[in-house]
Specification:
By secondary structure, this protein is an all-alpha fold. About 80% of the residues lie in helices and about 0% in strands. The protein contains one helix and no strands.
Length: about 40
């Protein structure tokens, strides 16, 4: 009984976390790339 519920819960968590992680990584890349002396 808990299988489908846990699957749906974990999928919703992943769908919520992944976009934030992608945005965070893009911000980090932008900041690091704009630093002087850093070859990106």
């Amino acid at each position: 009984m808990l299988g489908p519920i846990l699957t749906a819960a974990s999928l919703s968590v992943l769908l919520g976390v992944v976009p934030r992680t992608v945005v965070f990584l893009r911000i980090v890349e932008t900041v690091v790339g704009s630093l002087p002396g850093v070859v990106g």
